[in-house]
Structure formats: C-alpha cells, structure tokens
Amino acid sequence: MATPKHDLPDDDIEYVSKTEMKREMTALQQLGEKLIPLDKKQLATLKLPERLFDAILAAKKITANGATARQKQFIGKLMRDVDPEPINELLNKLAGLSDRHSAWLHRLERLREGMLADPKIVENFVNEHPSVEIQQLRQLVRNALKERELQKPAKAFRELFKLIKQYIPEPALPGLEASGPEEEDEE
C-alpha cells in the first residue's frame, strides 16, 4: 500500500522543536515583563493591542507574588501576537543603547561645540531655525565660553544643549509614534 502524498512539499514545512517554542515564548514573556515599569506615555508610543496595554497596566497594580507571576505569563501569551521589534527599539532607546539615539545626541554635542568654536555656526543655526531666540542663544554661548575659561561648573553649557535639543528633534524610531521631549541631560 502506497503512502499518500501531501499537497505541500517538505521544503515548505518548518519543523520547530517543543524546546525551541518554549524558548521563544519565554523570551516574549521576558520582553513583556520589561514593559511593566514603563509609564503610560511610553507604552502609548508602541501602539500595543488594547488587551496587552491593559494587562501591563494591571500588572503594575498587583502586589501578590502568585498573582504577579500569573499576570506576567498572561502578558507573555498576549505578546505572541505583537511584533517585538518596535518594543526592543524603544527599550534600547530608553536604556541608551540605540544607535539612532546616540547618533542624534552626538550630533547635538558637535553642534554645541561648533557654536563655541565658530560664530558662523551660530549664524547658520539662527538661519535654519528662525524661531530661536537669538539673544538667549548668543548669551548662552558667551556664558559657556566664560565658564570654560574660568573653569566653573558648566551650567550655561548644559543650557545651550537643552536649547539646541528643542530645535533639533530626535528622529522617530520605526514603528513608534513620535514621543514628546524626554527628560535627559546628556552632554
């Protein structure tokens, strides 16, 4: 007796072991657990399904250990239907590991240093961003140079960075909505 032939060739079937499936599910659960400490605003940028969003918010309120473990498993189950890439991007950004975020910060730092070294860069910045308060910008540059010369704390230096940061927004991560200004004081 001949064995029946299947419609699909064997090449189209991907065999995954039970162990591998468990590893993937555990990884998704761990990724979901990393979302629990985030605030609502950060979670909203991810465009998560409503059930998952609500489950994460509920997990924040649970204090009993057994209930916390069950809620984390539930979040892991809901994570199976979500693309993990935007979540990883956001978590990396928040951890300061994102290449895009680092490149943006370095760009701002180079611009700030350029403004301190060359007045033409200040003029170019004013031309590119006409809404900037010119007097405030020039005052911050003068004060930052004076701080450097007198080896004083870099208050104006940091203020100049914050001002530049207001006019050069961080590029949005793919799959995420643009988020508002973050509370970071990078130099």
From TrEMBL:
rRNA-binding among keywords: yes
Q: Which UniProt keywords apply?
A: Cytoplasm, Ribosome biogenesis, RNA-binding, rRNA-binding
Task: Identify the Pfam families for this entry.
Answer: DarP
Which cellular component appears as one GO term in the record? cytosol
- Function text: Member of a network of 50S ribosomal subunit biogenesis factors which assembles along the 30S-50S interface, preventing incorrect 23S rRNA structures from forming. Promotes peptidyl transferase center (PTC) maturation.
- Family assignment from sequence similarity: Belongs to the DarP family.
Tell me what this protein is called: Dual-action ribosomal maturation protein DarP
The protein's organism comes out as Iodobacter ciconiae
